[in-house]
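Agenda item 2: NDP complex prediction
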Amino acid sequence: MNVLITGASAGFGEALAKLLVAKGHKVIGCARRLDRLNALAEDLGELFLPVVMDVTDIAAIPKILADLPADFKQIDVLVNNAGLALGTEPAHNSDLADWTRMVDTNVKGLMAVTHAVLPAMVERNSGYIINVGSIAGNWPYYGGNVYGATKAFVKQFSLNLRADLLGTQVRVTNLEPGNIAGTEFSNVRYHGDDDKAAKVYSGFKNMTGDDIGDILLWLIESPAHINVNRLEVMPVAQTYNGLTIAKNDS
Ligand code: NDP
Ligand code: 8X3
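Presented output:
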């Protein structure tokens, strides 16, 4: 199978690329940092094709795909994984530039790659799009504001894609992970404050990018007649916090 992964230079994307190549699949590994992709290519060999793609550069995406070498051109599985959170401040203290970048990457970038890849899947009547959403798209939390809203978009877009694909064999899944350690996610979210990022994962048994890679591999290798619509996963240490009331009588 040929699998295109956006955000293959770190975290979930990198973990999945390694698992896929070990199983003999071909991977088109996309991201902005070519040095990291090249290092992966050195490890993984010719089944891994490093491709520089910034998903926010929407105009460039169709040409990047059109220029893929012949044996990587057919995309059987698209894993829309590139994404980021920026900041944990409440909305009234947030940076508008952070909000805009999250929308450009998590929403518009994901839309653009999907738009470029989907028609060929429909034409072949076969293919699989896995969107990496988040629990933040399901559950509101303090400081989640625009990040959570982008992931709610990803969830509903995934479900609406399936509605449009009725009668075809093209599958769509929204994977909704909770708190996952060992990736760059929190380092990016805290704008490079690595101490703050590390504290997010201290004091409990973490899930890791490798756990998510395993789940993605399982989805990709699942039988072609099954569509997993949504899959929410969390470490056992994490759960819902419930509704709350700000009391002024205590
Ligand atoms: P990482 O920060 O470790 O990896 C993010 C990947 O996305 C990197 O490869 C990065 O590569 C790439 N990326 C970021 N911006 C762009 C862009 N504009 N164009 C192309 N690639 C881009 O994060 P995770 O692996 O943890 O997260 C992956 C996905 O999972 C994200 O969508 C995230 O929102 C989601 N998620 C993460 C959770 C977590 O707790 N870790 C939980 C739930 C969901 P480069 O910088 O080289 O471009
Ligand atoms: C990231 C998971 O719990 O930090 O999507 O929102 S969480």
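Discussion summary: The pocket of NDP (ligand 1) is lined by residues 6-13, 31-33, 36, 53-56, 81-85, 105, 109, 132, 134, 177, 179-180, 183-185, 188, 209 (CB under 6 Å).
Owner for follow-up: CH.
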